């Protein structure tokens, strides 16, 4: 198997996890930057629609590295999908597949279920819940919590901050609650 | 709810602590790190809605392995940076910020968790999903920005 063929395969956790972990010292050592992604959403607000809100009145230009960083993530997404894409279907746990089939998901080919992420869903109830409500909770919740998976779970835990441990536990509790207690009702709506 | 004052010397949760001013061009290195990061996100399928469902259904170790090993590597690197007082490229001391507990970490954390399981994405993967051609996720991103903005608007009235 040549190298390109090898990296086109899905990367196992023990490759991806350490690479993500190395982002912490990389950002610290190349420019004294603390790893955190949800802050970018705040900088976008501060740059575009500060509306005289105290929370958005700060020198966002000093934090422009963060916006450049997330722009890089976007470019990385383009590159990986266009040049390094896995030629095979996603291998999903059979249990998850059975659970999701029971909820009404039919398409298991790509990284995202077409049943939900089809552009034509945007102006439907499905789209409203999965994009608008979901996105709003991600943006509101991460800022309220002071960070997301990167800022709290990875950077926060790496620096042994117990508030980050609490935040991370709450992320998981929220996710379990949605998946097991609320999603079945949401899927019943369609 | 009691009102909390935010003494907050740091304005940002992921701050730039570099004392020296950076040129516009020097930002290229953060883009490079971002690109690498985005590629890992896609190749390890972390941006997949399916993988997030697997995680919350405890039906695969993958996401736990990714996050767990990332934390271990991060922890080890921070330990080494502190222990050997490793300086940044421009010779500065690496800055760490102790996070203070507030109830926002609970309420906001729960809210983010609920949203994470619906959208199948935390903020980072949103950008990578859009790059991967899931154009409709732009709506999710815009809504997340609106959520952050609304938080800023209501911040003084929320429990922290």
Overall description:
The complex is a heterodimer of chains A (190) and B (160). Chain A is mostly helical. Chain A contains 9 helices and no strands. Chain A has helices at residues 3-8, 13-31, 39-48, 64-83, 94-103, 114-117, 125-145, 149-158, 162-188. Chain B is an all-alpha fold and 160 residues long. Chain B has 6 helices and no strands. Chain B has helices spanning 28-43, 49-56, 62-83, 104-119, 123-131, 137-154. In chain B, α1 (28-43) crosses α5. Chain B is globular, with a radius of gyration of 18 Å. Chain B starts with 27 loop residues before the first helix and ends in a 6-residue tail after the last helix. Chains A and B meet through α2, α3, α4, α5 and α7 of A and α1, α2, α3, α4 and α5 of B.
Secondary-structure map:
The complex is a heterodimer of chains A (190) and B (160).
Chain A: H1 3-8, H2 13-31, H3 39-48, H4 64-83, H5 94-103, H6 114-117, H7 125-145, H8 149-158, H9 162-188
Chain B: H1 28-43, H2 49-56, H3 62-83, H4 104-119, H5 123-131, H6 137-154
């Amino acid at each position: 198997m040549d190298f390109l063929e090898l990296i086109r395969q899905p990367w196992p956790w023990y490759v991806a996890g350490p690479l993500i972990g190395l982002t912490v010292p990389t950002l610290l050592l190349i420019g004294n930057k603390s790893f955190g992604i949800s802050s970018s959403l705040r900088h976008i607000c501060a740059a575009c629609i500060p509306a005289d809100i105290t929370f958005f009145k700060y020198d966002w230009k000093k934090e422009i590295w963060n916006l450049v960083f997330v722009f890089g993530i976007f470019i990385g997404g383009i590159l990986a999908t266009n040049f390094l894409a896995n030629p095979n279907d996603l291998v999903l746990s059979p249990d998850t597949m059975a659970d999701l089939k029971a909820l009404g998901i039919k398409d298991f080919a790509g990284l995202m279920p077409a049943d939900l992420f089809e552009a034509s869903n945007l102006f439907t109830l499905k789209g409203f819940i999965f994009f608008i409500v979901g996105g709003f909770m991600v943006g509101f919740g991460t800022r309220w919590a002071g960070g997301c998976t990167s800022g709290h779970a990875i950077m926060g835990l790496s620096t042994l901050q117990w508030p980050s441990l609490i935040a991370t536990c709450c992320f998981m509790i929220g996710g379990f609650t949605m998946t097991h207690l609320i999603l079945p009702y949401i899927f019943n709506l369609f | 709810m009691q009102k909390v004052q935010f003494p907050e010397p740091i304005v940002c949760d992921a701050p730039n602590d570099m004392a020296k001013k950076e040129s516009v061009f020097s930002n290229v290195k953060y883009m490079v790190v971002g690109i690498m990061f985005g590629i890992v996100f896609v190749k390890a399928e972390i941006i997949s809605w399916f993988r997030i469902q697997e995680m919350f259904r405890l039906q695969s170790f993958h996401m736990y392995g990714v996050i767990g090993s990332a934390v271990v590597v991060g922890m080890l690197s921070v330990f080494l940076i502190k222990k050997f007082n490793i300086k940044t490229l421009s010779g500065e001391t690496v800055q760490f910020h102790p996070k203070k507990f507030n109830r926002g970490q609970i309420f906001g954390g729960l809210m983010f968790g609920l949203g994470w399981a619906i959208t199948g994405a935390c903020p980072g993967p949103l950008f990578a999903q859009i790059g991967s051609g899931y154009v409709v996720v732009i709506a999710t991103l815009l809504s997340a920005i609106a959520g952050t903005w609304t938080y800023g608007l209501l911040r003084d009235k929320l429990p922290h």
